[in-house]
Amino acid sequence: MKKANVLLLLILILILGSFLRVYKLSSESFWIDEAATVYTTKQDAVDIVKDIYITLEHAPKYFKGGGIPPAYLLVANYWTKLIGLSEFKLRLLSAIFGIISVYVIFLVGREIFDERVGLVSAFLLSINYLQINYSQEARSYSLGVLLTLLSVYFLLNALNKKKIFYWIAHIISSTLLIYTHYFGFLILFFEYLFLLFYLREYKNSMKKILISALSIFIVYVPWLPVLVRLISGSGYLKLYLGKNILWDLAKIIVQFNSWITPDSQARDALRPLYTSFNNLHISDFLISWLTWLTIICVISITILLGLHFFISLAFKNKKTNKYNFLDKKYVFLLMWLFTPILIPILVTIIFPSSPVFGFVQYAIFASPAYYLIVSKGILQSRKYAVILGILLILSLSPLYSYYSNFDKQQWREAAEYFKINRSPEEIVVTNVPANILPLGYYYADMSNVVGVANVGDLKREINDKNTVWLLYSSEKYGDFKETIKNYLDASYKLDKKIEFTGIKIFHYTK
Question: Which of 88, 80, 84 is nearest to 24 (CA)?
């Protein structure tokens, strides 16, 4: 392709990707994890590092068990000091990381294959539901994807161009990656496993490879005690992750391709299905035609991209080639794709009391490799432009569901309800102490708002009061057996109930 055409197409893709990441950026409230990020933006940088180093958490008063390393939180802290704090301003940071990722995957695709693969992979990343979702969330995942792409890009250039600049850039991006998310180690593991696999071919670069690995290790040494404590106490995830690894893997595969944000009625109907296919009931089919259309589109996108994933591995120059996947380029991409997925599965199987597999955001760092392989497969067809057009059309319905329906907890709306209906002297109890963070961002009067962990805490807080508000959210992480609610149901009279996305509010009187 002519350079002018490549540049024009890349600019158009970047414009599209930028629009999809900025559109409706502030339309939803901060949810509980984003509120934890907001909490750190009001701290000093030293206190952020100290909290995580000592307690493993960046909001230890509200969370327990394990969190993320400090890199993203420090960037967000300085970002908000520079431009201020709001839903749009804080999430814009993740959107920028996502936009840059669209450009960097083009560079990676061009480096591994050619400019055409770079453009198609950039297009796939730009319209991908999963990437847009985490580019609109004030958490570390968008930065993690960008740093993964940069680490890979600089490594490839260091090996091919043999310039010291690329080795230094690889060390910096890789170090930032593991200081952004602990699963970043899986990316480094795949990279150095690949280098070990092709040891003979890269023996002339062995000195630089060893220096880069040693440099990353030395810079991370101060944080090793935190990593060791996190691993030794990682059982906190056992309450959050599903029990069916195959079902979780299937969901992650689908989410790499697309996903659905259902309306409230469809959400209630489909919730059992999300947990396990065995929970499917006839009532799950009583959803709107638009939801059915979205589900069909998501399945179609998954089949379309999955088919071209296998075409990419099995065909070369439009002819079958069963050894295609043994090509060094594909070995690199397949290691990138499967290492961050298979190792957590293996750990979860060996140590079921300390699972680490099940969340798609933990596997998101592997997703760019999938898009690169798929892009090569799409370009095997003479009608690749038609395929991309079909993909764009199929993506309209899932993206419409994403932008038109609420996905995050509606704390802004819950706060407005309390402003109108609650008297300041009335107590509000919530089943998860961390719920205080997002509520407190939108609700000024947080006096008499407390978090309780069990019925004993509840009794001490309400102290035989005549009225009690119960705010229920994130039940999976606190009082999932509803013992707190059952006690209030038995001891008080329920006279008000309202539900927002992800939040239930009950008012009890004697």
Answer: 88
- Specify the 3-state DSSP secondary structure of 135: helix
Does position 459 have pLDDT exceeding 70, yes or no?
yes
Gyration radius of the chain's alpha carbons:
24
Please give the DSSP secondary-structure letter assigned to residue 137. Answer: S
DSSP character at residue 504: E
DSSP 3-state of 140: coil
* Residues contacting 162, CB < 8 A, separation 6+: 205
Task: Output the pLDDT for position 242.
Answer: 66
Query: What is 33-86 written as a DSSP string?
Result: HHHHHHHHHTS-HHHHHHHHHHHS-SSTTT--S----SHHHHHHHHHHHHH--S
pLDDT band with cut points at 50, 70 and 90 for residue 178? very high
Give the span between the Cα atoms of 187 and 391, in whole angstroms: 29
Is the model more confident about 268 or about 48? 48
**Is 312 within 8 Å of 340 (Cβ atoms)?**
no
Instruction: Quote the tokens at residue 351.
Output: 């140590």
Q: Which residue has the tokens 């409706």?
A: 24
pTM above 0.90, yes or no: yes
Residue 264: pLDDT band (50, 70, 90) is confident
The arithmetic mean of pLDDT across residues 446-453, rounded, is: 92
Q: With contact defined as beta carbons under 8 Å apart, do 237 and 356 qualify?
A: yes
Please tell me the distance from the alpha carbon of residue 135 to that of residue 110, in angstroms, as a whole number: 23
* Angle 405-407-411 from CA coordinates, rounded to 5°: 110
